[in-house]
Structures are given as structure tokens and as C-alpha cells.
């Protein structure tokens, strides 16, 4: 499965010159807790609702200050064609909960750790059904397979 | 804007006491005019990811640029 297929929603972005208040409004309207911060269309960081609380409100940061004062810089990203293994590696070694998905230099999606866990749990549920069926009916395919068996 | 070239060494400083810097090699430059994102192979794992570097990132140009070559 490709990284872009793991991204359930389009990215929500904000410009680096926008204010903390504008970022909070975007989060409230979209229901998203992390925004990709762009400078002339190029990603330069990410800001979360937690950043606004712990770096902003807790330090009496003014609501009309620029959002790039609160963002985390140094953005690890995925290519649209990266495989699930690459995604897992990035989460494991870079201690992040969300990864933007990039096509060229444009952000086209976001994969969260929760998205990956949901996918894996669904796969696990599917596998457990197969195993349960084999335990319940262990010889269900024996007749069809009999001619080739020794 | 941070610029890099293929083969440059890239160092991301640790963010907490005792956290070692992450070092990698730039494998690919995707942005215009040498800009990000860069595909970086990390020394620690041998795996690569894309990176939009922040202010905590230092790039060491290990090969001379075209401008440096012509000025010699």
C-alpha cells in the first residue's frame, strides 16, 4: 500500500504569516489538530493544537502573533509512492505522529499514526476471521484438494 | 531558503540534552534552485525520507558548487 492511499483526507494548510488566532479558527472549522505551515507554497513546519496551548497560551503569546513562532520546523515527509514499510520506518525513527505526503514539493496528504494503526487493526481483524474459520471448519477444503494430496 | 546538492552532508541538531544529532546524505534535491524537499539517507538507519529542513539543520557542501568551480 502506498503512502498516499494511507492518507484519508486532504492536508489542511496555513500560511506562515497567518496569526495564531487564524490557525485556531482553521482548526476549529476543519476539526483538524495539526496544520502544515507553508511559506510561498513550500512546507516549512507543522503546528498542532497542543503547540498553541503549550507554546502559545501558556507563555501569554499574543493571539495576533505569527503562527510560525509556534510551529515545529524540520519536516520529515513521505513521497506519494513510499510503501507502508517506509511509512512505519519514518514513524519509528523520527518520533512524529503525523507525516505529510508530498508529490514533488507539493503537500497532497497527511498520514497520522492513528491512520496506520487503524489499517493494521482492520487487517488483523480480517486475518483473525480467516484463522477462526479454519479452526471452526478445519477440513472444509479437503474434498476439493483431495486429488492432489498424497 | 536552505539549498543543497546531491552528496551534501546534512546534520539535524538534537532537541533535548543527550539527544545526538542526526546525520545523513542528500540523495535527491526536489525543489527549484536546489531547494527542499531533499531525500536524505540517514546514517543511523541506512533508510531515506524526505526532509524540509528547519533552522536546526546544517548542510555541509562536500563538493564544490558550479560557481566555485568556475571561479578557480
Describe this structure in words.
The complex is a heterodimer of chains A (150) and B (72). Chain A has helices spanning 3-6, 20-30, 49-56, 84-94, 113-136, 142-145, and strands at residues 13-15, 34-39, 42-48, 72-73, 75-79, 98-103, 106-112. Chain A is α/β, with parallel strands linked by helices and 150 residues long. In chain A, strands 1-2-3-4 form a four-stranded mixed β-sheet. Chain A starts with a helix and ends in a 5-residue tail after the last helix. The mean pLDDT of chain A is 88. The longest helix of chain B has 6 residues, at 66-71. Chain B has a five-stranded antiparallel β-sheet, with no helix packed on it. Classes of the chains: A alpha/beta (150), B mainly beta (72). The A-B interface holds A 42-45, 72-79, 86, 89-90, 93-94, 102, 104-105 and B 1, 12, 30-32, 35-37, 39, 42, 44-45, 47, 49-57.
Amino acid at each position: 500500500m502506498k503512502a498516499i492511499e494511507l492518507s484519508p483526507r486532504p492536508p489542511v494548510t496555513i500560511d506562515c504569516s497567518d496569526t495564531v488566532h487564524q490557525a485556531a479558527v482553521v482548526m476549529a472549522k476543519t476539526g483538524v489538530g495539526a496544520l502544515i505551515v507553508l511559506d510561498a507554497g513550500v512546507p516549512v513546519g507543522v503546528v498542532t493544537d497542543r503547540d498553541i496551548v503549550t507554546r502559545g497560551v501558556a507563555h501569554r503569546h499574543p493571539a495576533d502573533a505569527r503562527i510560525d513562532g509556534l510551529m515545529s520546523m524540520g519536516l520529515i515527509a513521505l513521497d506519494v509512492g513510499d510503501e507502508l514499510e517506509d511509512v512505519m520506518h519514518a514513524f519509528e525513527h523520527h518520533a512524529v505522529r503525523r507525516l505529510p505526503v508530498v508529490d514533488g514539493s507539493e503537500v497532497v496528504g497527511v498520514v497520522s499514526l492513528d491512520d496506520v494503526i487503524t489499517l493494521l487493526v482492520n487487517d488483523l481483524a480480517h486475518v483473525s476471521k480467516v484463522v477462526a474459520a479454519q479452526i471452526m471448519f478445519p477440513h472444509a477444503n479437503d474434498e476439493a484438494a483431495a486429488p492432489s494430496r498424497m | 531558503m536552505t539549498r543543497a546538492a546531491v552528496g551534501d552532508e546534512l546534520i539535524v541538531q538534537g532537541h533535548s540534552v543527550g539527544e545526538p544529532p542526526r546525520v545523513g546524505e542528500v540523495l535527491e534535491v526536489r525543489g527549484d534552485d536546489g531547494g527542499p524537499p531533499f531525500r536524505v539517507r540517514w546514517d543511523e538507519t541506512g533508510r531515506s525520507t524526505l526532509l524540509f529542513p528547519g533552522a536546526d539543520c546544517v548542510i555541509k557542501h562536500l563538493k564544490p558548487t558550479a560557481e566555485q568551480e568556475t571561479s578557480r
